């Protein structure tokens, strides 16, 4: 059995700078980016080598969707802080902060500027 079900994830984008500005605003950080073959990738915050990472990606075959796989980003101590930035950054809250179960924390879902559904998770 593996420790983690996810090794890496990618969020497809059609306007890289718009998407980077959105994620920079809601996560309060400056996203580094890199050209990797035909894809431009913007890396989401994570501890390299110890955590599961992901990126926004612009390139062939990268088509945003509100119906595809749903990835949940770690939202720090209280996802309400990140969720509160979504509207001002151009996104839309789809599912508000919702309790999962005792000792499992909270989740929420938003639609980003590219049309992707993305989840958030926190323990508070």
What does this structure look like?
- The protein is an alpha/beta fold and 124 residues long.
- The chain has one domain (8-122): 2,3-Dihydroxybiphenyl 1,2-Dioxygenase, domain 1.
- It contains two helices and eight strands, in the order βαββββαβββ.
- It has helices spanning 16-27, 79-86, and strands at 8-12, 33-36, 39-43, 53-58, 72-74, 92-101, 105-111, 117-122.
- The strands form two sheets. It has a four-stranded mixed sheet, covered by helices on one side. Strands 5-8-7-6 form a four-stranded mixed sheet, covered by helices on one side.
- It is globular and about 45 Å long.
- The mean pLDDT is 94.
Second CATH tier, the architecture: Roll
Q: What gap, in angstroms, lies between the N and C termini? A: 29 Å
CATH evolutionary superfamily:
2,3-Dihydroxybiphenyl 1,2-Dioxygenase, domain 1
Radius of gyration: 14 Å
The backbone outline, from C-alpha atoms, is globular
Order of helices and strands: EHEEEEHEEE
- Assign the CATH class: Alpha Beta
Q: How is the largest sheet built, in terms of strand order?
A: 1-4-3-2
Which SSEs are present, and which pair or pack?
Blueprint: E1 8-12, H1 16-27, E2 33-36, E3 39-43, E4 53-58, E5 72-74, H2 79-86, E6 92-101, E7 105-111, E8 117-122
Helix pairs in contact: 1-2
């Amino acid at each position: 059995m593996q420790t983690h079900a996810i090794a890496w994830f990618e969020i497809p984008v059609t306007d890289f700078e718009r998407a980077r500005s959105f994620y920079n605003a809601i996560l309060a950080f400056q996203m580094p980016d890199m050209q990797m073959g035909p894809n431009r990738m913007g890396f989401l915050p994570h501890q390299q080598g110890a955590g599961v990472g992901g990126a926004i990606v612009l390139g062939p075959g990268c088509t945003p969707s509100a119906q595809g796989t749903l990835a949940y980003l770690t939202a720090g101590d209280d996802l309400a802080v990140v969720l509160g930035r979504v509207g001002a950054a151009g996104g839309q809250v789809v599912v508000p902060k919702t309790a999962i179960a005792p000792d499992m924390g909270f989740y929420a879902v938003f639609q980003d500027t590219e049309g992707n559904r993305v989840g958030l998770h926190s323990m508070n």
